[in-house]
Amino acid sequence: MMLRAKAPRRPVSDSHAFPTRSYDLVKEFLIALAVVTVLTVVLAAVFSSPDDKAISLQSWAKTAPSDVVATAAGELAGTTTSATYGPPYNTNGDGQQLLFLPLQKWAGVRYPVDSANDLVVGPLRSMTGDPAVTGALARWDSATAQQRTTWATAYGDALSKAPDGEPAKVASGDYGPVPAMAAGFQRLALTGGLEQQLTSGPFYNADPTKALLLLADGSYLEDQARAQSLGGDQWGMMNETGNYPGQPWLWLYTFWYQIDPFKSSDNADALVWGLMMVLTLGLMLVPFIPGLRSIPRWIPVHRLIWRDWYRRTGH
Amino acid sequence: MTAPARATTAHTTLTERLRTRIEHTVPQGQALPDRQPAYVRSWVYVFGVLTLSAFLVVLVSGAILAVGGLTWWHTSSVGHFVNSLHLWSVEIFFATMVIHLWGKFWMAAWRGGRGLTWVTGVLLFLASIGTAFTGYLSQTNFDSEWISTQAKDGLNAVGIGAFFNVLNPGQMLLWHVVLLPFVVGLITVWHVVLVRRHGVVPPIDAVAPGETVPGDAPDLSTASQEEARP
Lengths: 315, 230
Prior knowledge:
heterodimer, A: 2 domains, 16 helices, elongated, B: Cytochrome Bc1 Complex, Chain C, transmembrane (chain A)
């Protein structure tokens, strides 16, 4: 078999040089618009759309009080996700890296969050009429940072070992004022006052960043999400509550979280983002990448698309 | 017929230059032609205009939602129905856009100087994903709570989260209803203008009547199967 020398490129024929036929673009558009409109109305009327009520901190405290107490203890001990996060919330972690580039760290702390003080101690200071809380806060304030951490860590550990994590069943120990603070925190949440304390601004409270970080530090939110198959290892990013289609166009992004090495990597988010950036760039540059741009020639789906033309012109 | 050559007369004012630029962007009569090349005869061609139509329905349903405000649809049955219209039009928009994209891939629609048309199409796809994503973050319900607390990690990991706070629905809503739709609209116009400027790509290996055919060489460089032909 002889290999033929590579033929020189021939310019693609000018589309305007081909025979034409009548084609009403406006009519096509109007029909398409009508079809899409009717289809949308029918789908909306038949299937509606999901709207699961937001989990309020009040409903969290009511439904999962033990989780609220455990989360408060974790914030005070500095062991929660937000407390150890790093940028953009604090400097308690270095964050992830992409090809040894600490992009997360370089971006800096833009939304400062001191989990113990901003999410727990600060809101507790609003409970001026609660002697148990004010007394506990006075003891907390007078203790050293190391003592505070020791108390809170010990209480968090004891809660995790208690049956069902119930504060009432925690083994006795030296937990300092932490049990009183955590219990007061749960009471504050139950009144609905915690949202007000955590949202920014004295009147217009439009940024719930801190409240969401607190909610995500607990396990209740994730438990509810996993029950609806929304977990990260359940293709959660592309799913929607109920049986509704979510964002299926994110399937490739979500896919990487389901397989190694990504799903077991502490650096998974940066790795997946980096990979998706490369793949996206590849998709964008398909016309300029030898081999990739020739796939349509190798797998001739185009012969199906233009079958009438090829048949009529004898190709 | 190709894009006409630039006028050779020197233009002195910016207005003249801009006018000339606009007049020569699309060949005369091709901005809204009433005839198409004879090879434009497939259902695949419909998905581009279906995507455009779905985009309009998305915009209109979103605009009605905007009239009611951020949380209107939680408390009003009419608002909820409009939200359903918005959701399903978005699903149709992406479905038709993806079919359109795959169709253009198998047609190698970037041939003949149409590379930028493909690039703008991919940019449009990306901008649309961002727009839809910010919509999901602006729902002010359980779904947006969960999505935002999960998505923050990916965005923070590459430094984007420091400037684009997915936990802040106020910021996300403004991106969703102003910034990103503007970007999508702008790229859409650019994309459509490019399509009209270059015309619909001819079938692979098709030769226009009257043109000479230098061998049967492919118009894409390439292919080992071409080179390996005995």
